[in-house]
């Protein structure tokens, strides 16, 4: 557990990532788009696995009716073309009401599509699952059961498992980071942010599992911080012998910022620094309509890594706005970064 000090950020500080905005590279007139996970294909194109739901459902429609789809672009800085749905909710299964939080990874000759599903349109049945394919174009084969279950009643992670982040560890095992929180805290607290989101770690000998939690305790826990500070939407990668995590700020500096953490072993994590700023620091857009109450945030940050070096080269995220007044993918080129 990390015990952070009070956090402050001012104009004299420098975010870890220097970003050049590319823009809203992918939008659909009739949908909210979220969770944009990029990967290089064998065709040298950039493939995007993203979540979407119908515009008429509103921003909260992701929890009941999201589906995961596939898009492609010639280059990371080019517009994306939609290729259609790859995972829809399945009646009678654990992912019967939503499919969300896609994370696409390749291990060997197989693609692994991690995602979150639920079965009642609420947060307490959110579970992480996996679909696999030998090709980015499918077909995708899903496991019939979730890959990772919540903890027992009263545990820090008894509410759900969600926001999968995946990396192969230096121990040769496959690591799955996940977000969760405690149900009683969530139900009994008041305010705009209830409960405290923490991250756990589970490991497996095969990328498809079975995954076993490394501890009954979370590996990232900022619940002792002021202002109920926490983070979500983690993406993890390895570089120069260290593990790094980019995530969305929920109370350290600014809810519209991104965070960067580092760890030598995936268990002990640094205090968070700012990875990127709010959207208005990079682009100027018209004032949003009243229903886009999260306008100005870049959420669900995902990195497209250099295909040879494995280092960050583009930042993908989801943000409200666009001509359809919903949400779209937004892409930044990473001009430089400091870890």
Automatic annotation (TrEMBL):
Q: What is this protein called?
A: Glycoside hydrolase family protein
Which key words are in the record?
Glycosidase, Hydrolase
Q: Which domain of life is it from?
A: Bacteria
**What is the native source organism of this protein?**
Sphingobacterium arenae
Quote one Gene Ontology molecular function term.
Answer: hydrolase activity
Q: Which family does it belong to?
A: Belongs to the glycosyl hydrolase 43 family.
Xref: InterPro entries: GH43_arabinanases (IPR050727), Glyco_hydro_43 (IPR006710), Glyco_hydro_beta-prop_sf (IPR023296)
Q: In which pathway does it act?
A: Glycan metabolism; L-arabinan degradation
**Cross-referenced PANTHER family, in alphabetical order?**
ARABINAN ENDO-1,5-ALPHA-L-ARABINOSIDASE, ARABINAN ENDO-1,5-ALPHA-L-ARABINOSIDASE A-RELATED
Q: Name one Pfam family in it.
A: Glyco_hydro_43
């Amino acid at each position: 557990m990390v015990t952070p000090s009070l956090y402050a950020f001012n104009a004299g500080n420098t975010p870890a990532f220097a970003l050049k905005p590319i823009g809203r590279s992918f939008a659909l007139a009739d949908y909210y788009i979220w969770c944009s996970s990029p990967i290089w294909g064998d065709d040298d194109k950039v493939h995007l696995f993203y979540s979407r739901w119908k515009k008429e459902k509103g921003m909260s429609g992701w929890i009941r009716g999201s589906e995961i789809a596939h898009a492609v672009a010639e280059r990371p800085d080019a517009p994306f073309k939609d290729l259609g749905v790859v995972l829809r909710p399945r009646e009678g299964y654990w992912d019967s009401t939503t499919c969300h939080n896609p994370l696409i990874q390749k291990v060997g000759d197989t693609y692994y599509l991690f995602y979150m599903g639920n079965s009642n349109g609420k947060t307490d049945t959110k579970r992480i699952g996996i679909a696999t394919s030998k090709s980015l174009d499918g077909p995708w084969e899903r496991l019939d059961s979730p890959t990772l279950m919540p903890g027992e009643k009263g545990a820090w992670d008894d509410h759900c498992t969600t926001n999968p982040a995946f990396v192969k560890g230096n121990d040769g095992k496959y690591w799955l980071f996940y977000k969760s929180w405690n149900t009683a805290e969530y139900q009994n607290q008041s305010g705009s942010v209830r409960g405290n989101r923490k991250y756990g770690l589970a490991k497996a000998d095969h990328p498809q599992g079975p995954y076993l939690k490394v501890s009954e305790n979370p590996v990232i826990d900022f619940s002792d911080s002021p202002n109920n500070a926490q983070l979500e939407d983690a993406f993890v990668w390895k570089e120069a012998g260290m593990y790094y995590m980019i995530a969305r700020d929920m109370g350290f500096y600014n809810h519209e910022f991104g965070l960067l953490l580092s760890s030598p072993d995936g268990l002990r994590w640094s205090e968070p620094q700012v990875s990127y700023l709010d959207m208005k620091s990079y682009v100027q857009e018209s004032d949003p309509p009243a229903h886009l109450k999260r306008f100005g945030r870049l959420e669900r940050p995902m990195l497209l890594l250099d295909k040879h070096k494995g280092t960050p080269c583009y930042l993908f995220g989801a943000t409200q706005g666009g001509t359809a007044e919903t949400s779209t993918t937004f892409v930044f080129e990473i001009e430089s970064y400091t870890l």
